[in-house]
Structure formats: C-alpha cells, structure tokens
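Here is an idea for our session: we take a single protein and study its fold together. Start from the sequence, derive the backbone structure tokens from it, and show both lines together. Once you have written the record down, we can walk along the chain together:
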Amino acid sequence: MSTSEGPKTATDYIVHHLTNLSSGEGFWALHWDTLFFSFLLGVVMVLVFGIAARRATTGVPGGLQNFVELMVEFVDRQVKDTFHGRSALIAPLALTIFCWVFLWNAMDLVPVDALPEPAKKLGVPYLRMVPSTDLNATFGLSLSVLLLIIFYSIKIKGPLGYAKEFLTHPFGPYLFPANLLLNIVELVAKPISLALRLFGNLYAGEMIFILIALLYGAGWMLGAFAGVLQLGWAIFHLLVITLQAFIFMVLTIVYLSMAHEDSH
C-alpha cells in the first residue's frame, strides 16, 4: 500500500487517492486523468456499439447483438414513456448518457491500487480512475444538458415565447421580477442537482473502497475481512452505479421534454 515515495499514513493514502493528476490553477486547471478515462471509456462505448452494428444479423443474433438491442430497447422505452415532444436526437442522446455515465461509474469497481500503483512506477504521481468522482466531469456533462434545455426551449417556443414564459410564469405578468428570479433559480438548479447527485453518490462509494483498502495493510485477519467487505460493497455498488446512470438519463429526458412543451 505504501512505498518509500508514497503515502506514509492513512490520511496521506486517502488524500493521495483523492487527488487528480492536474495542471494549471483555478478555473483553468485540467484534470488529465479525468479527461483520459472519459475519452477512453467513450471510445470503448463507440467500439462496442460499432462492432455490434457491423455484426448485426436478421438471423439468430449473437450475445453482443442481444445486449445492444436490449440496451437500445430499454432506453427507447424510457424515452417513449417520458418524452412528450418530437425529436430524433433525444433517444440517441439518452442512450449515450446512460452508457457513458455507467462506464464512468463502473470504474469504481476497479481495485483502488490496480492502476495508480503501476502508474506511479511510470512517473505518474496521481491517478483517479473514476470520472464521476470528479466534480468537473459531472458539472461538464450537466452543463451540456443545460445548453440543450435552453436551445430547445428557444427553438420550440421562439425567443419571445421563451422570454414571455420566463417573465410571466407562474405568477402572471405583474410579478415579473419574482417570476424571473424563480425561473432562473429553477433553471440553474437543474444542472447543479444533476452534477451533485452523481458526484456525491460515486464519491461516497470511492471513499468506502479506499477505507476498505486501508485494512489490507493491518494484518492478515483484517486483510481477509477487508476482502469480504470489498466483495460485499462491490456487489451493492453495482446497483448504485446503474441507478445513478439511470437517474441522470431519466432526468435529462424529463428536462428536455419540459423544454419541448409550448406551455406549462
């Protein structure tokens, strides 16, 4: 767990595993590990779906085709049940969000030292493997959803219609300052809630895995107990990572459905 150049105490170990490989400061800081794993997992997702599409057959489907068709049908059903507008983008967007966020979250099941320790030997001092435990990643994804909400609101209702809704709903035109304030808060709360919900749940899961990993260096009995704890938490965490990806996808569909409505 620790080396001559690595963490010396439990606190050092935890801080080390919660530190991103970054450059720059403040707003302009780049978390290279988050960017790397996000891009890598995106490539994996595209390759899997691309291979399934090339191998698709009208005959007896293979395992990969069955899995992809199951995912597509599952997401398509959620869109049909939740989205009340008409758009060819929503279903592919929802599928992309669900699969990508799930892969982000699934990196939490990789043992906490499996990649950081080899990376350290290669000269990489810090390496966080789970993009969804980085608030920058979850906010970046949620802000993209916010931009789509604004885009479709203006597209469907028109600039004047969207402005009128902002100023007159829900209290009528004479209380437009209160309407404006309330609608701004509501609009800003959507990406914040999306980002913080995903980040909070996965950050907590990552912290528990790190705390369990500390037990491996405390003797063979605690090490064996840690193995049992890690397996149990990993099994439970499968539900968490799937549920959080599903919630992010469904809320995105709901918000975009609201943006497609002509009136409340």
